[in-house]
Task: structure prediction
Amino acid sequence: MHDGADRPAVRAALAAHPITANYLFHVLVSADVPIDDPRLILWGWFTRFDPLADLHPASVERAGNRLLFGFPIAIDATWKPGYRLPVAFDADLERKVLARWDRYELPRPGAHT
Result:
């Protein structure tokens, strides 16, 4: 989802669509999260999701002291103002570490001992 998108409108459209309405969960992620990489999509989901603020069920009922959420449940795992920037991978630093690896007296990464 791109920055500035109307999140409530996207949630409503997903809930109303004849195909996506049948899914239990709709997870909204930011455009920088590659949805074709299972590891990174989970990273994007769980690092940008606050269960208190970012769960949007279709309905909510009370049963005693329990809340019952109706499906679909939209999870807003998009980038929010105030979040710290993610740690960036530094390829130059990796090259320096690998060049000095023998000094560390550790097995090489990927080496099976």
About this structure: The first strand starts at residue 25 and ends at 29. The chain is about 25% helix and 25% strand.
